[in-house]
Structure formats: C-alpha cells, structure tokens
Amino acid sequence: MQQGSLVKPVRFPIRKHVYPTNIEKMGVRTAIQIFSPPVTAALSFLKDQAVHTCDTKFANVAPTMEFMTNMYRWFVLMDVSNCEQHIHQNNPDTRQFSDTKDPRLHWLELVFLEYIELLKEASSPENFLTKETYHALVFTTVSNVQCIQFLLNECDFTFVLTRKFSSDPIESLFGFLRRTAGCNDVMDVRSAVSGLEKILKTGIVTSSDRSNVNSSTSFCSSRAVSGSEVHLCGDWAPWEQFRWWSIQGKLTASYYLFEE
Asked: According to the model, what pLDDT value does residue 60 have?
C-alpha cells in the first residue's frame, strides 16, 4: 500500500509484518507493532478519507481498528515492567498495579473477555483465533488478574509488575528444541526427546562450581549427577577430555577443551 508513496502513513512496516515466516510469527514485538497506535491512527485517517482520496474499502475498517486497539492495550497491560514506565511514556496503562479496584483489572476481566466472546460468536471458525490461541488468551487474562488480586490482598504486595509473569523461560526452552531439530517448528516426539537429551548432556558436561578444576568459561553449573546418570553422556568429541570428581557422594562432571 505504501510502496511508491511520497508520504507513508506508517514508517516502520516491512515485509515480515505482513508475510512473516513460521519462526517470525512467534515474535511478539512484530505483532505489537502491527497493533500499535500509529497503525490504527493511519487506518482512522484512511477511513475518513475513503471515497475521497483512497480506496472505498477503508470505509469498513472500524471493526479492525477496534480489534487492534483492544489487543494492543492487552499487550501493554501484560507488559508493565517498572514503576516509572508510565511517567516516561505518559501512558497510565503502563503504571504498576497497586489496587485491586484498578479499572484496568475490570477492563481485562470483563470488557476484554466479553469482547472476545462477542467476536467469537460473530466470526466463522476459519476467521477467528485458533482453539489453542483462544484458550491461551482467556486463560492468561483470567489467571493474571486473579494472581494480581491475590498478591495485593493476601500477600500484602505493594505493587505488581505483570512482565514478571512472562513465559520467556519456557519459550526459550521451546526455541532451543526447535533449533536442535534444524529450526523445525513442526516437531515430532522423537525430535523433542532428542533435544531434551542434548540439554541434559550440556548441563552435565559444564564445569561444576564445586569441582577442583577451573573452567575457562564464565558459566558454571551446580548440576550434580548420580552414577546412574553417567550413561547419558554417550560418546564425546576426541578433543574433549573429561574428569569425574567424587564430591559429597555424587559424581560431578568437569572438562577441558583442547585445540585440535
């Protein structure tokens, strides 16, 4: 739409925003940029100029704008990271949660979920979210709201930052499993098990902070293994020499890396 235009309505969209690969579809930042206020503001302008200076199809863009606005606000509320964010960004939605009667919690628990239900009823299955995405969206919203209320009421928290509820660790695990299978995003059980075994082996051979061998790397693992787990190590590269040290009745793996 913007190609060849002297003045572009939105400055940042690139091809991956419209035609992302399977791996790029997992990026949250790209989705947030698509739903961001600059895009909805551009659509609002094009809607007002429909028939006059742009395509008449923009006259019916209001439902799309509503969906983008609601989803963007949901992302913002789920990404509150500190107590000064709302000051620097001049956005009250990025303020920390410190009151169980916060209107943002009411919006998440009632207004947003009701909107999703209405959208589900008005849309055909192929034009709506997948079953897994819909369930995850509802579950995340309800659980986060209830968790915030519990921490403020029962645990006497002064405030709650929703970014701390992120699933980055498990997403990192899934990403590693995909990379071990050659960036395959449609993995079978065998590939997943193979990736998990590689993670275990990596943790075992990393130098333990309790061993008497200095590691040349900055990362040290406290992972200790029992004798029954030693068989997981398998065959290693010829330039790796391993030493097993008995510490507190357990076997801890330490290693040297030699240049060929």
From this structure: 82
